[in-house]
Amino acid sequence: MDSWLETKQFPMHFIATGGLVYKDNQVLLIRSKRRGWEFPGGVLEQGEAILEGLKREIWEESGIIARPITFVGVYQNLAVKNGYGALEGMKLPPVVNMDFICTYESGTARVSEESVEVAWVRPEEAKSMVRHPILAKRLANMLAMKRKISFATFEKPDNQIENFQQLFLNES
Predict the structure, then answer these.
(1) How far apart are CA 171 and CA 148, in angstroms?
(2) SS3 for 46?
(3) Sign of the dihedral defined by the CA atoms of residues 51, 149, 34, 61, in that order
(4) Mapping DSSP to helix (H, G, I), strand (E, B) and coil, where does residue 140 land?
(5) Ranges of the chain with pLDDT below 50
(6) pLDDT tens digit string along 85-132?
């Protein structure tokens, strides 16, 4: 029997998305207060469809309307973290991230409550700008996307990569 059936506590993960948006051989990055430069994305709202949540997060963080075109991978961060900001004092559950390649449709890049800077940069520049270890690995997978879908699990709460397991689901 599954343990959650015995304890009557449902399994809990946040579901989040990330999108690398391309326009004219450049990619969209945002700079957040907490993590520095990163690709846009975030946690889905309750009952929100995955692709709609991705488009909403990109729009909210950057002012850009994008269209997802390719699924890149699934990343599971098993760390339970302390909340921050409005979630101070709470424990945040593990996160399942789903990353996509997107194409620019419209909009003008602008900052938001979640971004202090927004920029279109060359893909090679993006690699050096994104310094958060997990986000840098996910970005590298997005930039190297060659019809291979990634799956990876991270287990260390301080965002350092330890026991990074990765497999390519459709490798031939």
Answers:
(1) 6
(2) coil
(3) negative
(4) helix
(5) 162-163, 165, 167-169, 171-172
(6) 788 888 888 999 999 999 999 999 999 999 999 999 999 999 999 999
Evaluate whether residue 3 is within a structural domain. no
Count of domains forming the chain: 1
- For 29, other C-beta atoms within 10 Å of its C-beta total 25
Instruction: Give residue 149's pLDDT.
Output: 65
Rounded distance, CA 120 to CA 125, Å? 10
Secondary structure class of 138 (helix, strand, coil) = helix
Q: Are 11 and 4 in contact (CB under 8 A)?
A: yes
Residues with Cβ < 8 Å from 45, sequence gap 6 or more?
53, 56
Which DSSP string do the residues of 62-119 spell out, in sequence order?
Answer: HSEEEEEEEEEEEEEE---EE--GGGTTSEEPPEEEEEEEEEEEEE----BTTBSEEE
Q: Which domain holds residue 152?
A: 11-168
CA distance 88 to 136: 26
The answer to whether residue 135 is domain-embedded is yes
